[in-house]
């Protein structure tokens, strides 16, 4: 996809997030919106996937370690054609497909069930090890939260990925600075985060997580980095794209009302119009 | 009927307890608004430790605080407390019998929209199987308050299981919760329902409605799953000769299992277990899920009728 098209897609993903959260009446807008540009680049440029064959053995894999951001993943999967967009309106409702957190047994295109923070990167490593064993050249991507960095398992997985030279793994850290109880800096400081990953043996790329061109370049660099895994430290704004949600911890886990949703969509429509 | 989530009662009790006892310290893992420890944090910031999203470290740190004389309340969702940090609880808290109170909220399918990954249906089984662990499942706000106070007074590890959903207030200050004691909340001769957590309210409603049909049912609130009040359970089973258990937990390993274990050894009695039928939950509105997973007064009534036929 062209860069302008990717920007439009990121905007469409953001609109889908709002559209699905309003009827759901619960869910996580902040961390979904912060990752929209990253998902747009992954699903519409970077990853080799076949929506008509979600289980394709050679496909690239994506693990949403920060599983509460399920809306951004569902929004991208629906746009890509893994399932009808109408399904988005059933988010979090009894008996429907789209669970509050990604469920690989229910949703086509979801490669791993997540929701419990800290576990995703380990699963990505497992997929990457299997790929090496099978002489397949698929790549595995995992999106992690900065609050999630506090989980010990993240660092167990970080150590293992470097130990096994998993250059087919690319992690993306959604560095939006906020978690539930406030700023990550105040809840549990993770700095200096780039130095930690480097010390664990990773190739570290610092990138603006809302800059499509910079993200494309970073993923290309990750692909050409051999002998070690790569992490993109993506500097982002939680709630990005909706003015009243931006950088607000309170928008971590509450859905917009119908009125707030309309306001958010209005802003996003204006943004996409200004792209042309 | 006035409703209050047991987690709300916990938050309030903690603040009061914190004023009375300076050794009370509280740990949370980035969920203080949801577990309701935020109020304690606001009142006693120097005795509150937010560990970030790191439940294993939270439990281990709580163990150390207890070993050095503090009374830590360690809070997070039930799934992360008993799941992520199982072995820290087992080897750093239960094995050395340290004075840590694991106050877990968001248990069962009544968590609702977050879905199966967040709905602990096996936490009681896990905690009950652990030597040295006391396991409490309060039914309403008042009982939660008393359970929190009792846990603080008791010297040793305690698991207190609480919920997210508002539940009817059943008891007042005259009610008396005690670790190891079951509470008979309704007398009856035809059958006994042993219930805990939010199923106590359903059991009481069921018993009331069954009475209108001429079926007299005793209701016993078994908030103390461990230690279990064997005496009361055996005597009511013998008296009514039919037993139903009701809990918002897998029918494997929880209250139903505990009651069945006692009765099969001491007083074999026909029994029907109401609970989650060995399946994970899903996303949905809490009340819809309670209905879908067979956890309403209607299910309890059906259980009573079925077990009476087995007499
Ligand atoms: C093991 C675990 N503990 C706690 C939670 C509850 N929880 C959900 S989201 C969240 C905060 C996540 O913050 P962050 O990783 O920064 O995500 P983002 O800001 O991208 O939304 C927490 C504590 C969880 N899902 N898993
Ligand atoms: Mg964050």
What would the principal axes of the Cα set say about the shape of chain A? globular
Question: What is the CATH homologous superfamily assignment of chain A?
Answer: Thiamin diphosphate (ThDP)-binding fold, Pyr/PP domains
Number of continuous helical runs of chain B = 13
CATH superfamily label of the largest domain in chain B: Thiamin diphosphate (ThDP)-binding fold, Pyr/PP domains
Radius of gyration of chain B: 19 Å
Textual characterization of the structure:
The complex is a heterodimer of chains A (276) and B (311). Chain A has 276 residues and is an alpha/beta fold. Chain A has a single domain (3-275), classed as Thiamin diphosphate (ThDP)-binding fold, Pyr/PP domains (Rossmann fold, 3-Layer(aba) Sandwich), CATH 3.40.50. Chain A contains 10 helices and 5 strands. In chain A, strands 1-2-3-5-4 form a 5-stranded parallel beta sheet, with helices on both faces. In chain A, helix 9 links the parallel strand 4 (203-208) and strand 5 (230-235). Chain B has 2 domains: 3-168, Thiamin diphosphate (ThDP)-binding fold, Pyr/PP domains (Rossmann fold, 3-Layer(aba) Sandwich); 183-308, Rossmann fold, CATH 3.40.50.920. Chain B has a 7-stranded mixed beta sheet, with helices on both faces. In chain B, helix 11 links the parallel strand 13 (243-250) and strand 14 (271-276). In chain B, helix 4 packs parallel to helix 6 (86-94) and helix 9 crosses helix 13 (297-309). Chain B is globular and about 55 Å long. Chain B starts with a strand and ends with a helix. The mean pLDDT of chain B is 98. Bound molecules: thiamine diphosphate and magnesium ion (MG).
Keywords:
heterodimer, A: 276 residues, alpha/beta, Rossmann fold, B: 311 residues, 2 domains, 5-stranded mixed beta sheet, 13 helices, 14 strands, 21% strand, binds thiamine diphosphate, binds magnesium ion
């Amino acid at each position: 996809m062209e860069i302008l098209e990717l920007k439009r897609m990121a905007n469409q993903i953001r609109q889908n997030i709002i559209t699905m959260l309003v009827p759901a009446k619960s869910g996580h807008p902040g961390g979904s919106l912060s990752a929209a540009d990253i998902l747009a680049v992954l699903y519409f440029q970077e990853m080799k996937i076949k929506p008509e064959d979600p289980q394709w053995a050679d496909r690239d894999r994506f693990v949403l370690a920060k599983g509460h951001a399920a809306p951004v993943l569902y929004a991208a999967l629906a746009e890509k054609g893994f399932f009808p967009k109408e399904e988005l309106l059933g988010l979090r409702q009894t008996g429907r497909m789209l669970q509050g957190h990604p469920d690989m047994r229910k949703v086509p295109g979801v490669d791993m069930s997540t929701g419990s923070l800290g576990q995703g990167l380990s699963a990505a490593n497992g997929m990457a090890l299997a790929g090496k064993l099978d002489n397949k050249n698929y790549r595995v991507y995992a999106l992690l939260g900065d609050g999630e960095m506090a989980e010990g398992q993240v660092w167990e997985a970080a150590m293992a990925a470097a130990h096994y030279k998993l250059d087919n793994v690319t992690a993306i850290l959604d560095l939006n600075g906020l978690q539930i109880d406030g700023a990550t800096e105040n809840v549990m400081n993770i700095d200096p985060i780039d130095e930690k990953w480097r010390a664990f043996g990773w190739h570290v790329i610092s990138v603006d997580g809302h800059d499509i061109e910079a993200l494309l370049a970073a993923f290309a660099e990750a692909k050409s980095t051999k002998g070690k895994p790569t992490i993109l430290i993506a500097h982002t704004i939680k709630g990005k794209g909706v003015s009243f949600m931006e950088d607000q911890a309170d928008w971590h886990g509450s859905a917009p009302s119908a009125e707030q949703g309309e306001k958010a969509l209005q802003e996003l429509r204006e943004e996409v119009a200004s792209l042309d | 009927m006035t409703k209050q989530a047991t987690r709300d009662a916990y938050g309030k009790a903690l603040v009061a307890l914190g004023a009375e006892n300076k050794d009370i310290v509280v740990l949370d893992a980035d969920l203080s608004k949801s577990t309701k420890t935020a109020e304690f944090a606001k009142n006693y910031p120097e005795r509150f430790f937010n560990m970030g999203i790191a439940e294993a470290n939270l439990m281990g740190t709580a163990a150390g605080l207890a070993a050095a004389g503090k009374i830590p309340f360690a809070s997070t969702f039930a799934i992360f407390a008993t799941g992520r940090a199982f072995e820290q609880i087992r080897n750093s808290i239960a094995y050395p019998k340290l004075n840590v109170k694991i106050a877990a909220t968001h248990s069962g399918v009544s968590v609702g929209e977050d879905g199966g990954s967040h709905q602990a249906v096996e936490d009681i089984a896990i905690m009950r199987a652990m030597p040295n662990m006391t396991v409490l499942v309060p039914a309403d706000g008042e009982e939660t308050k008393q359970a929190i106070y009792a846990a603080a007074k008791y010297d040793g590890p305690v698991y207190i299981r609480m919920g997210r959903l508002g539940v009817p207030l059943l008891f007042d200050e005259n009610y008396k919760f005690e670790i190891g004691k079951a509470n008979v909340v309704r007398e009856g001769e035809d059958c006994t329902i042993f219930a805990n957590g939010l199923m106590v309210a359903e059991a009481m409603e069921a018993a009331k409605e069954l009475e209108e049909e001429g079926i007299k049912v005793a209701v016993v609130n078994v908030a103390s799953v461990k230690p279990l009040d064997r005496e009361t359970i055996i005597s009511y089973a013998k008296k009514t000769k039919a037993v139903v258990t009701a809990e918002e937990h897998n029918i494997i390993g929880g209250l139903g299992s505990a009651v069945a274990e006692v009765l099969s050894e001491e007083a074999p009695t026909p029994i029907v277990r109401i609970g989650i039928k060995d399946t994970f939950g899903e996303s949905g509105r809490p009340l819809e899920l309670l209905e879908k997973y067979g956890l309403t007064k209607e299910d309890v009534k059906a259980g009573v009728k079925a077990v009476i036929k087995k007499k």
